[in-house]
Amino acid sequence: MEALVSIVIPVVIFALTGFKVDREYERGVIFRLGRMSGIKGPGIYWTIPLIDQKAKIDIRTKTVDIQSQETITADSVTVRVNAVLYYRVLDPDRAINRIENYEFAVYQASMTTLRNVVGQNILDDILRNRDKINHQIQEIVDEITDPWGIVIERVEMKDVEIPQSMQRAMAQEAEAIREKRARLIKASAEKEASLMLSEASNQIAENPIALELRRLQTLTEIGTENNTTTVMLVPTELITMTKQMAEKMSKS
């Protein structure tokens, strides 16, 4: 009996060592005597001790911080750009068996693609159309990593550093554009004002009494201010009428 117990206990312990547990976001790629056997997890499962070997894969979305890269744009401007890339393992089998180190491979592919795509675009497109550049990088890297069972979820350029001389030139260009816009607005306002004055003069010419009303309005506006001297504009027609009346009275 003691001999049986001494045999059973080691066998039970040996069998228990074959139990594995993976979390919800983990998968176990099982190799049996060196050959692919299957993918296990999440949860608890059993493998044959000493026969089966497990490679653990994390299937959560991973973040890759692409270091700043120096490259030359299509219009010959030297810039430094960096980006962040998000990817996820879809097929643990291919991620293990198709590539030696998929994390390092994804980083190298994204870094090279970032330099190439930036070099194919002019500086204005890089600064103004970042979404377009991000999409181009994502498509290219996703195509590269697809045979490895990896999907690229998103790519975002973070910073674009340009030389100081180019920054000053761009600032001068922006200032010139703003000045041009201001002059156009001022010229448009002057044109509109001149048209309105021309229309007003035509109306006054057709109806002289409007000029007298405007003079009275001017007197009212002057009266509301704290002025020590008030200049009253006397219509020439009123002077003429006064002279005529005085001549008639003198003759009579």
Automatic annotation (TrEMBL):
GO cellular component: plasma membrane; side of membrane
Domain Band, chain residue ranges per copy: 17-174
Transmembrane spans: none
Domain of life: Bacteria
Protein name (database record): SPFH domain, Band 7 family protein
Pfam families listed in its UniProt record: Band_7
Assigned protein family: Belongs to the band 7/mec-2 family.
